[in-house]
Design brief:
- 50% of the residues lie in helices and 11% in strands.
- It has 568 residues and is of the alpha+beta class.
- The protein has five domains: 5-101, Zinc finger, CHC2-typedomain (DNA Primase, Chain A), CATH 3.90.580.10; 104-232, DNA primase DNAg catalytic core, N-terminal domain (Alpha-Beta Complex); 248-364, 3-Layer(aba) Sandwich (Dna Topoisomerase Vi A Subunit, Chain: A, domain 2), CATH 3.40.1360; 374-423, no CATH class; 434-555, no CATH class.
- A hairpin with an 8-residue loop joins β10 and β11.
């Protein structure tokens, strides 16, 4: 229920002064279990406690019957009190004066209370229809989907008969007005016509808030040609599609315990996973994930896992969710991604392979940076210089939307590091583009030991790459074709081309001569492009000019064998 501001402030004061375990402990025998409390559920018969109380979150949840809510909801349901009466009880026990409601707030509270009771009555009626003779087809459908009767009852599934006034007749007989049923989204009002049932000939799926109160319905078509396949309740005073999640009441305790929320695409995906014992699962309500849904989940947990269909549409939906989430990403919060086998949904996967099949998917979850990298490379390509440039620009554009400055910088660096690693050519490998693009008619006979000038030139090239490691990717092809006579330099070149992390750190380790400050100063005086302050464009052009001069000498060596090599 959406609380008006006065009541919301009052309940926050009550929570700070009167913990939920104190409210429930006054009425039930509770036992401490770590940071939580447990008790025998008062809302159904049980011998083993399945009723858990979370002081940190201020909510209770029963894994047996699905009962869920805060202190106010507990008093309402346990003592069968109205909303206003429950507020008075909390006020008395917390020693906090009950706020005076203005007429508008009081009217809204009464309206919401009436709508909630109407929705609960509708759910009970839909459920009764499922177990009537006319529900045989719907029950058979659920059986084919692998759902047990216990699961069907736990999630309150029902049936809307293919009648225009089935629900309308039943609930008006219980004294609910046409206006209330229409405002709750149960009836459709058309100008000049009598309102009629919104849901007809559909399997009914109750949508509940975190307290476990029915606030809306999803209706699944039972006939192959029936459109739309899924029909949801409209926006109402109780229901806002973009801020609620399916199964949030059933998943709350498991999410709090694990610190993880798993988001799947559909109602039945969520139900199937809950039935398989994977209980930290919720689903959006027929739309892509919204910013509010993501923020709500991150408020409860640190890790949100997204598991949408593996087809192109599912990938796009996942990417849209990522784009919406990045502005709210901060230290301690993250997204992960689950990849399903082709043609599988979560419910089909657990139906075939049980919980273990899906647990294996969870264990191989992809990180946020991995997903961004894979999506970007798939969208832009990484074969040509133009595609590579497009990828790098996309990495920058994506990470720019991250709100946390530290995460923004680290994410961009990780994406670039992986990109340079995976797109940098491997030198001298048979069948690679280096072999294909190597100079023709190269003299493969051993070349003489270079003089000191030649050695200094080679060292200058390597020093420049140590100081400007991001240049490596741009000059990789030229670097791979160079013949270094000095074994240390040759090994260093290969290590640089195959570096998996920071090229500069790798090279500083390999090239011992860089620790010789005198030699380094001499090289930088002779070749200014090796200085750290040199503009990167100037470094690139000077480096390529020197390297290409060396290559030109090698190419023509066979034609002019008596010419001294590498004379500058």
């Amino acid at each position: 229920m959406s609380l008006f501001p006065t009541t919301a402030r009052f309940l926050e004061q009550v929570k700070n002064r009167l913990p939920i375990e104190a409210v429930i402990g006054k009425r039930l025998k509770i036992e401490r279990r770590g940071r939580e409390y447990t008790a025998l559920c008062p809302f159904h018969d049980e011998k083993t406690p399945s009723f858990w109380i979370s002081p940190q979150k201020g909510f209770y949840h029963c894994f047996g019957c699905g009962a869920h809510g805060d202190a106010l909801k507990f008093i309402q349901d346990y003592e069968k009190r109205s909303f206003k009466d429950a507020l008075e009880v909390l006020s008395s026990e917390a020693g906090i004066p009950l706020p005076q409601l203005n007429p508008q707030e009081a009217a809204k509270a009464q309206q919401n209370q009436t709508l909630e009771t109407a929705m609960s009555a509708a759910q009970r009626w839909f459920e009764s229809q499922l177990y009537s003779p006319m529900g045989a087809e719907a029950r058979a459908y659920l059986a084919r989907r692998g759902f047990t009767e216990q699961t069907i009852r736990r999630f309150g599934l029902g049936l809307a008969p293919d009648k225009y006034e089935g629900l309308k007749s039943a609930l008006t007989a219980e004294k609910y007005s046409i206006e209330t049923l229409t405002e709750a989204g149960l009836l459709i009002a058309v100008d000049g016509k009598s309102p009629y049932d919104r849901f007809r000939g559909r399997l009914m799926i109750p949508i509940k808030d975190r307290r476990g109160q029915v606030i809306a319905f999803g209706g699944r078509a039972l006939k192959p040609d029936q459109e739309p396949k899924y029909l949801n309740s409209p926006e109402t005073p109780l229901f806002h599609k973009g801020s609620n999640l399916y199964a949030q009441d059933a998943a709350f305790a498991a999410m709090s315990k694990s610190g993880t929320a798993l988001v799947v695409e559909g109602y039945f995906d969520a139900i199937a996973l809950h039935q398989a014992g994977i209980a930290h699962v919720v689903a959006p309500l027929g739309t892509a994930m919204t910013e509010e849904q993501i923020r709500t989940l991150w408020h409860q947990v640190d890790t949100v896992q997204l598991c949408f269909d593996g087809d192109k549409a599912g990938a796009k939906a996942t990417w849209r969710a990522v784009q919406r989430a990045l502005p709210y990403l901060k230290t301690g919060k993250t997204l992960q991604f689950l990849a399903l086998p082709p043609g599988e949904d979560p419910d089909t996967l657990v139906l075939k392979g049980g919980a273990a099949a899906f647990t294996n998917i969870i264990e191989h979850a992809q990180s946020l940076s991995q997903f961004i990298y894979s999506w970007t490379v798939a969208e832009h390509g990484a074969d040509t210089p133009e595609q590579k440039a497009s990828c790098l620009a996309a990495f920058q554009e994506t990470t720019d939307t991250i709100g946390d400055a530290v995460l923004k910088r680290l994410m961009l660096q990780e994406l670039k590091d992986r990109f340079y690693q995976e797109t940098r050519p491997v030198p001298k490998a048979k069948g690679t583009r280096f072999e294909k693009n190597a100079p023709k008619n190269v003299n493969t006979a051993p070349l003489p030991r270079p003089d000191s000038f030649r050695l200094r030139a080679q060292r200058a090239l390597m020093v420049a790459l140590c100081i400007h490691p991001l240049l490596v990717d741009e000059v990789a092809e030229t670097l791979a074709q160079l013949e270094f006579f000095d074994k240390e330099l040759d090994s260093a070149r290969d290590a640089l081309l195959n570096a998996t992390a920071n090229p500069s750190a790798v090279m500083h380790t390999i090239l011992g001569f860089q620790t010789n400050d005198r030699l380094l100063a001499s090289l930088q005086q002779e070749w200014p492009f090796t200085k750290p302050q040199t503009n990167s464009d100037d470094v690139r052009s000077a480096w390529l000019a020197l390297a290409n001069s060396m290559l030109a000498e090698v190419v023509t060596a066979e034609l002019r064998p008596k010419r001294r090599l590498f004379r500058f």
